[in-house]
# Entry
Amino acid sequence: MEEKQLAENIMKQVGSSLVNEEESLLPGGRVADRYLERLSKAGYDISRFFDCADAIRHYVICAGYVDGNFEFRISEYRV
# Structure
């Protein structure tokens, strides 16, 4: 799967659980760190998910709640 599509799929599935409603928009790097942190706390071997975290870091510009709705921005190009 293309890295951009992977990042978008992850954000659609679990993105809202990685950002608190009280927080402003977070950069993709911080969202990726939280993704790995949650997997680690759940007992997963996070080394299996580094590609997923990298996809988030490189394609998610920001994610958070705007007017009570979860939103995220995906870059067309790897950043």
Notes: Helices lie at 3-14, 28-41, 50-59.
